[in-house]
């Protein structure tokens, strides 16, 4: 099968190849509907992902992190970085039958920002918008902000990140070694980004940004991102909803 998606056409061909029986596209759609299948946007997953490693991390390492955080009076944060661009348009738009919907795109004025953020299952969101590339200095700046906030609450930070190189670089390791009493960092297994709860915050922000009229300046992109993140920060129930995904409900 050369198709990357299980469309009605791909399923029709599969049935024909496996059972030498050809159904019409409409019949395939009727059967899928009867069986409770509906079209959905697929989750991207790397070919290199090892499901057994992911399960092992959930069953063993995450539970150990959770146990240690409880014993130390800590707070578990999930962190991630993302890029924001003013040319990103997502979702669907209605149009008369036979006509394709049209969206106005910004040309020649592509603007880009970066953001690093964390979420907790208690509904807390911490974030920092960056004008430029994300690097170890910005990561350490986030560490410092998280530690300062947690100290006010009398808690220790337990931060879960993915396996980007910048998360393991020498300056980051050196800083963490000097602040072991305040923060501990753990890493997800490779090719398992869907485990990171902060990915859902990123998707939330990008969806809102991309469904608005495209902004032409970096300042307006920054303002749009800041406004929505401020909204998220003051709505803990919205953050808690990120933890209801069946694949990650172990962290709720």
Strand arrangement within the widest β-sheet reads 3-2-1-4-5
Distance between the termini: 38 Å
- The residue-averaged pLDDT reads 83
Rg calc: 22 Å
How many E strands? 5
How large is the count of helical segments? 8
What is the 3D shape? globular
In helices, the fraction of residues equals: 40-55%
* SSE order, one letter for each helix or strand: HHHEEEHEHEHHH
Structural class: alpha/beta
Low-confidence stretches: none
Strand % is 5-15%
Largest sheet: 5 strands, mixed
Characterization of the model:
With 252 residues, this protein is an alpha/beta fold. It is built from 8 helices and 5 strands. It has helices at 8-19, 25-34, 51-71, 136-152, 170-178, 198-210, 218-233, 236-241; strands spanning 74-85, 112-119, 125-130, 156-161, 183-187. The protein has a 5-stranded mixed sheet with strand order 3-2-1-4-5, with helices on both faces. α1 (8-19) crosses α2 (25-34). The model has no long low-confidence stretch (mean pLDDT 83).
Summarize the model shown:
It is built from 8 helices and 5 strands; from the N terminus they run αααβββαβαβααα. It is an alpha/beta fold.
What is this structure's SSE topology?
Blueprint: H1 8-19, H2 25-34, H3 51-71, E1 74-85, E2 112-119, E3 125-130, H4 136-152, E4 156-161, H5 170-178, E5 183-187, H6 198-210, H7 218-233, H8 236-241
Parallel strand pairs: 1-4, 4-5
Antiparallel strand pairs: 1-2, 2-3
């Amino acid at each position: 099968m050369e198709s990357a998606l299980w469309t009605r056409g791909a399923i029709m061909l599969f049935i024909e190849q496996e059972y030498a029986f050809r159904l019409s596209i409409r019949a395939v759609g009727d059967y899928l509907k009867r069986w409770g299948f509906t079209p959905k946007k697929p989750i991207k997953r790397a070919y290199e992902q090892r499901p057994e490693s992911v399960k092992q991390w959930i069953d063993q390492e995450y539970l150990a992190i959770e146990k240690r955080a409880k014993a130390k009076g800590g707070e578990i944060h999930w962190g991630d970085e993302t890029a924001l661009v003013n040319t990103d348009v997502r979702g669907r738009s209605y149009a008369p039958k036979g006509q394709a919907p049209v969206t106005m795109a910004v040309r020649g004025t592509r603007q880009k920002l970066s953001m690093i953020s964390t979420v907790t299952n208690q509904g807390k969101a911490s974030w920092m918008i960056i004008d430029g590339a994300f690097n170890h200095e910005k990561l350490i700046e986030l560490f410092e902000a998280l530690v300062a906030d947690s100290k006010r609450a009398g808690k220790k930070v337990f931060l879960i990140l993915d396996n980007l190189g910048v998360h393991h670089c020498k300056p980051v390791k050196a800083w963490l070694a000097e602040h072991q009493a305040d923060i501990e960092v753990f890493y997800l297994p490779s090719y398992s980004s869907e485990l990171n709860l902060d990915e859902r915050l990123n998707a939330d922000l990008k969806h809102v940004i991309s469904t608005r009229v495209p902004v032409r300046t970096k300042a307006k992109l920054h303002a749009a991102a800041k406004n929505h993140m401020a909204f998220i920060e003051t709505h803990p129930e919205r953050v808690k909803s990120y933890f209801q995904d069946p694949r990650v409900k172990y962290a709720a």
